[in-house]
Each structure stands twice: as C-alpha cells, then as structure tokens.
Specification:
Largest sheet: 6 strands, antiparallel, barrel
Number of helices: 2
Helix content: 25-40%
Distance between the termini: 144 Å
Order of helices and strands: HHEEEEEEEEEEEE
Shape: rod-shaped
CATH topology of the domain at 128-278: Thrombin, subunit H
CATH superfamily of the domain at 128-278: Rod shape-determining protein MreC, domain 1
CATH architecture of the domain at 128-278: Beta Barrel
Length: about 300
C-alpha cells in the first residue's frame, strides 16, 4: 500500500505543477470555447441555461424567503420611524396652529370690542385715542383703570373716557405713555348729567358701589326706573349727550344709576379729544341755593 501511494504522489505532483502553470491558458481557452459555442449554437446554450435555472430555482427560492422576511422587517421598521417622525411633525404643527388659533381668537375678540367701541359716543365728529386697559385699580377705596396711551398721544387731564356702551370716567393722571382713568363709580367722581327724558340736570356721584347716586336733582324731576342718563355737557370738558346709564332704583334713600358699561370687564377705552375752544371752560351748572359748585 505504501508503495502504491508513493508512486501515485510521484506521478500526480508533476501533473499538478503542470496544471498550475497552464491554468490561466486553460481558463482562457474555456472562455473562448464558450463564446464560440454561444455564437454557433444558441439553442444549446439557451437549453443549458434553462436546465441550470431549473436546478438552482429551489435553492434560490429557499434563500429568497428569509431575505424577503428581512426586507419586510426593514420596511416595517422604516414605516414605524416614518410614522413616528410624521407624528412628531404633526404634533409640532398642531401646537403652532393652536397658538395661532388663540391669537386669532384674541384678535377676533379685540376686533369685536373695538367695533362695539366705535359705536359708542354721540358725536362722531370728535377725534378719539384708543387705548388698552393694562391695569385695574379696583379695590376697597379706589375705582380706577390704567391705559397704555398718554401725553404723547394727545391725552390731557379731564378728558372723557368711553367704553363699549358709553361713558366710563375721566382722565386724572397723564404720563407720556400711560394715563389713569377715574371711573364714574369712584368715591371722588362727580359727573354733570341729565335725564334724557325731560332734560332735568343733576350730578352723578360715585360712592365706590356699582351703582352711583343721582344728586342735586331738581324737585320738578320725576325720575323713574328705566330712564336713561346722559352727560349734560356742563363744565365744557366734553359734550352733552354721552350715554352714562339708566335709573335702576328710586327711593327715599336716593336715585341709583347703573352704568351702561360693565366696569368690571374693561378691555379698550376711547379718550375723547374734545375741542375745548368750542365751549367756554367755565362752570355753567346751576346748583340750588346753598349747595356747593363743582370744582
């Protein structure tokens, strides 16, 4: 056995060396032969291809199944990542839209308030400066409001401030950028008014309650619940006829007037730029004998 094995190795070694030396030439010759066969006998080549395809098809099908499963998993993961990114984008866009919705609602409310405000006031020929209420001085002893317009906008002391339904108060303090409005319900407020029906003049006196008192009313007047009260124009600081409120109580304790404007919910105020040259800035109100005159 050993002799035969050694003899075979002695014979195979030169053949292996010969094949290694001429392997390139053999492969080149095989390639040339295949090209020649392909050119000369195309049906044979096509049949050979078909047979080889039939042989390898089951193997390729088995290999393709896990590949398809892996591709499906990759696509599923991509879909999840896309949905996650899209969800984040939509959430961000929704948050921005909600912010703009809030802005739109505030602008709509402001626009509605300004539209209602433009309907207040009897004399459209007057000029006005509109300001937003930025602070409320409401408390136990004071009824004021601070607005974000001042002297640089043409405001002066004594000018009338109007709300959505009519008279609100008058300017008492003026800065360059802000002004303070003394509301008609304040304890220090005194407003010359008259009953719209009959024209009987009086003074609306604030006492820090929601319904100021009607004082210095002539004895000939017959106030009744529901009668409208407007400014009389006495004093010349602003014109007559500005709506103020309506009578809500008539008793031995006095006459009470409810303002047309909700003073607890002020948003915008219009300050009337009344032309004081049209009227003499003198006191024209006639008080009964023994009663004090307005300062």
């Amino acid at each position: 056995m050993r002799g035969r094995t050694g003899r075979s190795a002695w014979v195979a070694a030169p053949l292996r060396a010969l094949l290694q030396r001429f392997a390139f030439l053999l492969l080149l010759g095989a390639a040339i032969g295949l090209v020649v066969i392909t050119r000369t006998d195309r049906p044979l080549v096509e049949r050979t291809r078909a047979v080889l395809a039939d042989i390898v098809e089951p193997v390729l099908s088995v290999i393709a199944q896990p590949v398809a499963a892996v591709n499906a998993v990759i696509g599923w993961v991509d879909d999840i990542l896309y949905v996650h990114d899209e969800n984040f984008r939509l959430r961000t866009e929704n948050a921005r839209l909600l912010q703009w919705q809030d802005v739109a609602r505030r602008l709509e409310q402001d626009n509605a308030a300004l539209r209602r405000l433009l309907a207040a006031g009897p004399d459209v020929s007057q000029t006005y400066v509109t300001g937003r209420v930025i602070a409320d001085g409401g408390g136990g002893f004071v009824r004021t409001a601070l607005i974000n317009v001042g002297a640089r906008d043409g405001l002066k002391k004594g000018q009338a401030a109007l709300g959505e339904g009519g008279y609100v108060g008058r300017v008492t303090e003026v800065g360059q950028r802000a002004a303070r409005i003394l509301l008609l319900t304040d304890l220090n407020s005194r407003l010359p008014v008259m009953l719209q029906e009959g024209g009987h003049r009086a003074v609306l006196t604030g006492d820090n309650s929601a319904e100021p008192r009607l004082e210095y009313l002539s004895g000939a007047a017959k106030p009744a619940v529901g009668q409208r009260v407007v400014t009389s124009g006495d004093g010349g600081q602003f014109p007559a006829g500005i709506p103020v409120g309506e009578v809500v109580a008539v008793s031995d304790a006095g006459v009470r007037v409810r303002p047309f404007v909700d003073l607890a919910r002020l948003e915008f105020l219009r300050v009337m730029q009344f032309d004081e040259t049209r009227l003499e800035a003198t006191e024209t109100y006639s008080f009964p004998a023994g009663q004090p005159r307005l300062p």
